[in-house]
Amino acid sequence: MASIFSRIIAGEIPCYKVAEDDKNFAFLDINPVAPGHVLVVPKKEVDYIYDLDEDDYVSLELFAAKVARAIVKAIPCKRVGSATIGLEVPHAHIHLIPINKESDMNFFSEKAKLSEAEMQHIADSIAEQIQ
Ligand code: 5GP
Asked: Which residues, in sequence order, are CB contacts of 110 under 8 Å at separation 6+?
């Protein structure tokens, strides 16, 4: 069965899309550690990020860098932290999280509660900054 992320990429499940290219897709995490928390996903469904072939891995990282540069412009923050976990969804992805201090990279913190309108506004703001 297709992963939840493949179903999002295919448009079968809605998401707050931020960007896509021929190989990769970026959208807001539905349960954000911070406003502007983005997931960057290869369109090819591979469970573990470090099992991606070299070209797909490099493509994913370069795409993630582009999205991270857009996040910093759209969301007030010092930097964008990145993390790979992948224990919940078996489809490789990189978490991009706006941070101001090390402890902001905390997946156990209370998640940001945002309205649909706020999520859409955040996604649109980041998308506008993609170059
Ligand atoms: P991980 O697999 O890296 O541990 O975490 C998966 C991440 O995917 C979590 O942060 C979770 O909130 C996010 N997530 C899980 N299901 C969905 C979904 O259906 N839509 C979106 N946008 N994010 C999801």
From this structure: none
